[in-house]
Amino acid sequence: MLTTKATPWRKRLGDYQEQQARSYLEREGLDHVASNVRCKRGELDLVMRDGETLVFVEVRFRASARFGGAAASVDPRKQARLTAAAAYYLQRHSINLPCRFDVIAIDGAGAIQWIRHAFAASS
């Protein structure tokens, strides 16, 4: 990973955690489609393909479980932003595939928890 002095440490840490998540999912057999997809509605950390299913992956890192940990930070508000960003992505790229939302939760020790079907798309 290329870094510069001007890059904030939080951004570097986030980029590193997303790369860890991507590598983990690729080892598990998923194919990378896109990273850091941004739109007005939100950001998609990773877009992966699991067979015929498009997977929108939210990567969360928490050094401590003190406030519920990484997985707990994907609250209903965050889920709504992710589903809106995913809908935008699907429409923009004219994609008509089954989709799901997964969460990769990484703790301070670097342990990865993959939560498949973490939540359903909000209406």
TrEMBL record:
<protein>
    <recommendedName>
        <fullName>UPF0102 protein CKO42_01185</fullName>
    </recommendedName>
</protein>
<dbReference type="Pfam" id="PF02021">
    <property type="entry name" value="UPF0102"/>
</dbReference>
<dbReference type="GO" id="GO:0003676">
    <property type="term" value="F:nucleic acid binding"/>
</dbReference>
<comment type="similarity">
    <text>Belongs to the UPF0102 family.</text>
</comment>
<dbReference type="InterPro" id="IPR003509">
    <property type="entry name" value="UPF0102_YraN-like"/>
</dbReference>
<dbReference type="InterPro" id="IPR011856">
    <property type="entry name" value="tRNA_endonuc-like_dom_sf"/>
</dbReference>
<dbReference type="InterPro" id="IPR011335">
    <property type="entry name" value="Restrct_endonuc-II-like"/>
</dbReference>
